[in-house]
Amino acid sequence: MTKTAPSGGRGDLIDQVMVVVRRDLATEVSYQYSFAMRYVSIFFSIAIFYFVSLLVGESTQLGEYSGRYFEFALVGLVMSGMTSVSLQTFNQAVGTEMGSGTLEILLATASRYLPIFLGSLVVPILLRFVEAVLYIGLGVGVLGAGFSGRGILLSLPLVLLAIAAFSALGMLASSFVILTKRGDPITGLVAQATNLLAGVLFPISLLPEGLQVVSKLIPTYYALRGVREVLLNGSGFDEVVDEVAVLAGFTVVLVPIALWAFSRAIRLAKQTGTLGTS
User: Fold this and answer.
1) Of the candidates 190, 165, 172, which has an alpha carbon nearest to the alpha carbon of residue 247?
2) For residues 31 and 215, which has the higher predicted lDDT (pLDDT)?
3) Is residue 4 situated within a structural domain?
4) Which pLDDT does position 104 carry in this prediction?
5) Which of 15, 16, 234, 268 is most deeply buried (CB count within 10 A of its CB)?
């Protein structure tokens, strides 16, 4: 006798995630011009920082990376793109569904938000990975950036943990949107703070000492340190274990809090009858 997978099992979760993935992918591909221009613009971004690096020259502030600003900035651009899309995607998805009046239907049961959350992240993050490949490929193949080939593989755990931590922050922001029906107060502030304080485009040693302390409260700081260490210095995994551990700590703390806050926000919105309103 053939057994069927119980409803709500792992197979059912994957099916629901794939529904969201197929929908988002079809939407992206349908806008072919903007889809193509998105990748053409990558070359211009790289070229700008390449010529800025010629102006900067061999910077003493980047001594631990052999003074190479182009590679330093290129890693920052890639990581900034990864974390920003993780931070904003789910929040944007909730806002879109709320604006179209379909959020209440999608979240009809308590378990439905998880596949929506996971599914809405897949396509944007995959597109960012494609962008990362183009950034690094053009940087190395056209403009002569020097990266460790082994470092690309070693950087993946750091990147994935940073994505998980920022996705949790994005889910927290969505909780505010559901409850207040207004723009979230988190993503813009976190994105700006990350770009300024985490060492995306310049080393944090240029910041006042007080702000350097604040920098170490941002997950991207540790992701950038670790990724630059393995990509630019050719270090092994042993040299970035501390960064991996800190990012894992952020993820372990933030993900359960975000899941609780989001489920709580849905429950409160249902009780007050405001889940389906915008």
Assistant:
1) 165
2) 215
3) no
4) 62
5) 16
Report if residue 102 sits inside a domain.
yes
pLDDT over 60 at 7, yes or no: no
Confidence of residue 275 (pLDDT cuts 50, 70, 90): low
Q: How many domains does the chain have?
A: 1
Cβ neighbors of 178 (< 8 A, separation 6 or more) are 94, 98, 103, 262, 265, 266, 269, 275
Residue type, 272: T
Domain annotation covers residue 7: no
Check the CA dihedral 119-278-177-7 and report its sign: negative
* Domain ranges, residue 103: 12-272
Please indicate, yes or no, if residue 258 is contained in any of the structural domains. yes
Q: What is the mean pLDDT of residues 146-168?
A: 89
Percentage of residues in the chain with pLDDT exceeding 70? Answer: 81
Which two three-digit tokens encode residue 127? Answer: 């597109």
